[in-house]
Amino acid sequence: MGIPVVQNAPVGENLQDHIAFGGLVFLVDKPISMMQSRYENLNSVIQYAMYGAGPLTILGGVEGLAWVNTKYANSSDDFPDIEFHFVAGS
Q: Buried b / exposed e across 38-66, counting CB within 10 Å, b at 16+?
């Protein structure tokens, strides 16, 4: 095509995809979920500002993360090959 090569880089070697599984559904019928009135209050702001703790330290909609090495992971890489996002919604 006549395009000069600037750098011969390993393109696509770290190609990743974002596959989602939305089929895990369960009922939360106890006061343990994140409700706006439970974290938008003075006590929560003070906990966060003074101690870096409390409900304002959640991961912005992602309740938890996990990085996992599967049997397909490249052992020469220094990072896992799977990342799980645990997301809440209603």
A: ebeeeebeebeeeeeebeeeeeeeeeeee
Please tell me the predicted confidence (pLDDT) of residue 49: 92
3-state secondary structure of 55: helix
Which of 63, 60, 62, 67 lies closest to 84 in space, CA to CA? 67
Q: What is the Cα–Cα distance from 62 to 85, expressed in whole angstroms? A: 6
In tens, the pLDDT along 34-57 reads 667 777 889 989 998 999 988 888
Kindly report the pTM of this predicted structure. Answer: 0.38
